[in-house]
Amino acid sequence: MRKSTAFAFALCGTLLLVLLFVGARMLYIGHHSQSFEKIAGKGEQFQLTLMENDTLIAELTDSAQIAAVTDLLKGYTYTEYPHFFHPRDNELSGNRLTVLFENGHSISVNADGYIFVNDKLRDVEGGRGKEFYHLLYITFYPNAE
Questions:
Q1: How do strand 106-110 and strand 48-52 relate by DSSP bridges?
Q2: Residues 60 and 101 sit within 8 Å (Cβ to Cβ)
Q3: Residue 128: which residues within 8 A CB-CB, separation 6 or more?
Q4: pLDDT digits (tens, 9 = 90+) for 48-76
Q5: Does the structure show a pLDDT above 80 at 1?
Q6: Residue 65 is inside which H or E element, if any?
Q7: What is the pTM of this model?
Q8: What's the confidence (pLDDT) of residue 32?
Q9: 93 to each of 3, 32, 122, how far by Cα in Å?
Q10: Residue 26: which residues within 8 A CB-CB, separation 6 or more?
């Protein structure tokens, strides 16, 4: 009887720990992952500001251009930077493209593929930062190859 009771307590305790871990992980992911809607807001964008480093490139008001930029940005989920050690400041000082929304929030990416949401280092699912930079660069400069 004592062995079966001890086994039942051990099994219940293990299951409880697994459930707590899964629940905590879900809360962590939900809190630290940001969808495009959380960043830009749920409403339609009527103006976007495009900047390279601190230089204004364009203020988009044409709905087709805004749709092209927002469709690109909607395709990514912005997550917490996954690595324990963050890059040094000199690695983050490369050419940076920034999209500034009406609500004051921004999404940036530098030439090395580091993503910034409201100037905080983030990542995109799948670690596709360089691909993201290239696609955003083509959106900023449509005549570039």
A1: unpaired
A2: no
A3: 76, 113
A4: 888 888 888 888 888 888 888 888 888 88
A5: no
A6: helix 63-74
A7: 0.71
A8: 62
A9: 62, 24, 15
A10: none
Collapsing DSSP states into helix, strand and coil, what is residue 87?
Answer: coil
Distance (Å, whole) CA 50 – CA 48: 6
Q: The sheet that has 48-52: what strands, in order across it?
A: 55-60, 48-52, 96-100, 106-110, 115-117, 120-124, 78-80
Which pLDDT tens digit goes with each residue over 8-25? 888 888 988 888 877 776
Q: At what angle do helices 63-74 and 129-140 cross, to 10 degrees?
A: 180
pLDDT in tens, 97-114: 999 888 888 889 988 888
If we measure between CA atoms, which residue out of 46, 86, 90 comes closest to residue 66? Answer: 46
Whether the pLDDT of residue 141 is over 70: the answer is yes
| 20 residue type, one letter | L
Can you tell me which residue has the tokens 């086994």?
7
